[in-house]
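In the previous chapter we treated chains in isolation. Here, by contrast, the input contains two separate entities that must be folded as one system, with a combined length of 629 residues.
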Amino acid sequence: MQGAWGSAGDDAAAPKAAASAVAVHAIVAFGALDHFLRRQEGQQRVIGTLLGRIDGRTVTVTNSYAVPCEEGADGTVAVGQDYQEKMSRLLARVNPDEAVVGWYATPGADGAPTDDASEMIHGFYAGACAGQAPVHLVVDPRLEGDAGITLRGFVSDGNGFAEIPCELAFDRGERLCLARMVRGQREPFGSAESVADVMDADEDGLALEDALRDVDALAAYVKARRAANEDVDPKVARALNEALAALPKIEDAVARGALRAETRDVLMVSYLAGVTKAQLAIGAKLHESF
Amino acid sequence: MAWAHAGVRSMVKIILSVIKKRFSQINAQRRVEEVQIDGLALLKLVKHCRDALPKMVAGSLLGLDKGSILEVTHCFPFLAPRSQDDYEDIGGTEEDVDGEEYQMEMMKMLREVNVDNNCVGWYKSIYAGSFCQTPLVETQFSYQDNLCNNCVVLLYDPSAICNGKLSVKAYQLSEQFITSYRAKSNSFVSPSSILVQLPLKVRNSSLITALLHDINESRQLKMWLNLVDQNTECANPLERHLEHCCQWVDDLIEEQAKFQYYLRNIERFKDHARWLSQRRVDINDEEDDAPMWKNATSPPRLDSLLIANQLKQYCLEINRYSAFVLSKLQLEVTCCKRA
């Protein structure tokens, strides 16, 4: 791990392999946008360090942190090198599996994703990354046109930046959190800022609604095709066939018997839980008088 | 969890020194009624707790209390204890074993990039919904008593994720309990009003909401209905709940045994006193040796109250889950009939 922040000098001699694709976890995009909102007054570009792991030629970015950076009017850039190294050391004490893999930035004053200053900062990060050449993630929060918030990945190809495929990735926890942030809103995306309920989520009900909506869409599709006397896309037909075949074929009586037994079990458990609650209430009363 | 406790203590110590200078009237503020956590902080918390599995970890929450809302805008992990070798490997020094220096540094570093620098509580990962334990109450008490009455503890249960649930809860100690605990009194506090749950909401800035919108449009957040329990990695939650329930009942019985022992002692002393007074009447003895049964201290109630609350939580959880299972079964019955 020592190499992750050490030795800046010896990388120039042997060029490191560059990544060919980058997967960015949602937490990183959130972090960059949050950092952009917290930027100093008048500051255009915010930068930060990307942490993650390298699988072959794909870089997975799982965490990030903000790094202070100042741009002078004359094109000079000052990156908080001490800050970057210290933070990297602090975070390595919590999770030593994440190494520095690159850096993120928002576009500079002229709006171009990369410019001369990016080249300089990239040079600095080449020394900070251990295993591989750094990746550069550009998070564009300007919301120009219909683009929304875009994420683009770059690597250095010797005489400039070359774009590489970049996609958002989610682990299970992130997916759940994001789904909650969307579904918990009283009126999804009715306002610019969003506030969502976290508690008492009926995820199963929502998932069921989703599934029903899909079934409806599918039925509508099949109906439309039949009405138009066209063939259904063989891929869809095959998927449908597989889904229907997945229904287990059990003897009716057996199935019903098993279900009845299970229902009885669950009712029993639920009844016992009720009794326990009553006991606890009595216990509390006794405690109180004691 | 002793280390988390130590970590928390040093945290409290640090912030106390900072805060005492800045707000002397902080305890006079009114209580918050709701907790709002930034999306980023929630993701960070969930990530830390998940990455650290199977270890249970804790961390610090940064933010601000604003009127009736406590805003949590950032969080960072506490250090988990390591062996001495690990410390040397990553360049740590011997003195910083409980991470006091680390926390101090982290707060300073975050302030440099304009992150809120005010501690509003802590978070902790819990296993399978059990959280009513004395150390947790003690730590939360030290936060609310020393730092700020509005401090919360966020409890995240990483094991709920395999049932497709996001389980994060915000808790505070009630005023009533704090008063009684501060006075070190052993009086009765209703089990459900020791730790009080606060509504928790997640708030996102407009930029992040825009990103969420894009992600939602791309249908990457689709939820899969977990009707068939194919994934063997997590046992049936009902079974797991029952198992835990049994363990907690055993604990409760153990606690109750202490009370029974105490009562028996009192009875024995009373018998003895009666026998003595009887003898005094019989032989006309003027000796005054009143028995000292009051000296026996009554056992502390806190543990059994907490266990009772925990059991109640499990019962509620079981009821909730069995309602879901019942509707699932109903669905299966209908499916079977159709097929």
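The helical segments of chain A are 26-37, 81-94, 116-128, 172-183, 203-227, 234-245, 252-289. The first strand of chain A starts at residue 21 and ends at 25. Compare these points with the single-chain example from earlier in the chapter.
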